[in-house]
Write a structure and sequence with these properties.
alpha+beta, 480 residues, coiled coil, 13 strands, 48% helix, single chain, Nucleotidyltransferase, domain 5, 15% strand, 4 domains, 6-stranded mixed β-sheet
Length: 480
């Protein structure tokens, strides 16, 4: 085998360095993890077990466990069993943990019992980034992404699915009853008849369970129940696929792509703009934020609430009227004249305001109608309305705010590209680190803790890429 690089004989004695420190070079990431965790006041952050009694069996210090988890999430090792294996064979972890190797149960219990502390560590790192001026631009992008829950689709029930299962079981019972009738006529063996009867009894028991579950599903406010992880929900993902998942909301800095704030939800994006933006305000300790989001967040009231909180939301509106499909002019073809309080149609006729307004959800709408004589003799009527009545336009009482927002957005045609490049980057990275699989934990409390660790690891890695190992160590020592 000449011409190849040759290895060392496995039976040959080798003199390894006596110190673990010699195995970990000065630029190794574990040195930054060690400096960061050692600088934290874990008792103040809410970790349990920081102070121990003089009697009893010694326990692992929370700093040891936190170092293990941060290293694991940075290196795509999130499960407690795999972390146990790594602690026993990974030289970097041996250095970081000083040769300590907790078992998987201890590792899992630490994550379960220290949700508050882990959340505060995640916030502390964002605070560190803020103090070294990483968020001076004051512009964030908000989006949600579906993370598959630890709940199989078969264990999620909706009224439609319940009706399908009940119908199928009833059909099986009917088939078995017919089989039982034929068995009497054809004089089958007692064993066959007994087996058939047992199958019928089992199916009847299953039917009773399904009907009980059906009542629970119909009584549920969201008309669905997940039996493995009750907090997860069946939601549409990309390509209209339906997956049992959580919708993770995040606010990301558009300059450095750092996650400023995040929240775990089980609803759609609609209505999440202001709550997520307010979380970002608290994290950055400033109100005058510019908030960019896609059309899935468009809600008049939500945009108004965001503006009332001191922020500048920039959210495009999708055309949901269906006018284009009907072959008629959509709303954008009508111009509002604020001074006269009228709408101008494509044929330069005026739509006058009505005398009453209506309430749609929480919004009060004023209706503007064309005059009958203008509409009846208009050459563009077939393109304007399919109804016998004149064309009507509805206007929200705070529509001026939306119009002003639209003017700001026209000055920045690259907004949606900036949003996409900013907020979708972290989601893709975290899902890649997860291995494109489901969340490891269940229920809101535990999933939030898991996401806090993911966000902490992502931000940590991002800062290492921006500042370098020594630069981040210096920032930690100067700030925390």
């Amino acid at each position: 085998m000449s011409g190849f690089i040759k290895g060392i004989n496995r039976s040959q004695s080798t003199l390894f360095p006596e110190s673990l420190n010699d195995f970990v070079h000065a630029e190794n990431t574990v040195r930054v993890i060690d400096v960061f965790i050692e600088a934290l006041d874990l008792a103040e952050l809410g970790f349990t077990g920081v102070f121990t009694k003089s009697t009893g069996r010694p326990k692992y210090h929370p700093a040891v466990m936190l170092k293990l988890y941060l290293y694991g999430y940075l290196n795509r090792v999130q499960s407690s069993r795999r972390l146990e294996i790594e602690a026993n064979q990974n030289i970097e972890l041996m250095w970081l943990l000083e040769r300590l190797a907790p078992d998987f149960k201890t590792i899992a219990d630490f994550r379960k019992n220290n949700a508050k502390g882990i959340k505060h560590v995640c916030r502390t790192f964002v605070e560190l980034c803020r103090e070294i001026h990483m968020f001076d631009e004051g512009e964030i992008a908000i989006d949600g992404s579906k993370f598959k829950a630890s709940n199989h689709k078969d264990n999620n029930y909706t009224p439609k699915k319940m009706a399908f299962h009940i119908e199928r079981v009833e059909k099986h019972i009917s088939n078995y009853l017919e089989k039982l009738d034929r068995a009497d006529e054809e004089q089958h063996s007692p064993q066959t008849i007994k087996a058939t009867q047992e199958s019928i009894n089992n199916l009847k028991q299953k039917l009773a369970e399904l009907k009980t579950l059906e009542k629970e599903v119909k009584a549920h406010p969201e008309k669905q129940i997940s039996t493995t992880d009750p907090d997860s929900r069946l939601m549409k993902t990309q390509g209209m696929t339906r997956v049992v998942s959580y919708n993770i909301q995040s606010a990301v800095d558009t300059k450095h792509h750092l996650i400023v704030a995040h929240e775990v939800t089980n609803t759609t994006d609609r209505g999440q703009l202001c709550p997520t933006a307010v979380l970002a305000q608290h994290a950055l300790k400033r109100k005058d934020l510019t908030v960019i989001a896609d059309k899935g967040y468009f809600s008049g009231q939500d945009i108004k609430d965001t503006q009332d909180a001191g922020m500048t939301p920039l959210v495009p509106k999708g055309d949901t009227s269906g006018s284009d499909k009907k072959g008629i002019f959509n709303r954008s073809k009508f111009t509002y004249d604020k001074e006269k309080d009228v709408y101008i149609c494509p044929n330069n006729s005026q739509l006058m305001p009505g005398k009453t307004r209506t309430k749609d959800r929480d919004l009060y709408l004023m209706h503007y109608r064309a005059r009958v004589k203008d509409c009846r003799h208009c050459s563009l009527q077939p393109q304007c309305t399919k109804s016998a009545t004149p064309r009507k336009i509805s206007r929200w009482e705070h529509q001026d705010r939306i119009d002003n927002m639209d003017k700001l957005m026209k000055k920045r045609p690259d907004l949606m590209l900036i949003r996409k490049q900013s907020v979708e980057h972290p989601f893709g990275t975290i899902k890649c680190w997860m291995g494109m699989t489901h969340l490891l934990t269940r229920r809101f409390k535990n999933v939030r803790t898991e996401m806090n660790l993911h966000v902490l690891a992502y931000n940590f890695k991002r800062m290492l890429n921006i500042m370098g190992n020594q630069g981040l160590i210096n920032a930690i020592k100067a700030t925390i």
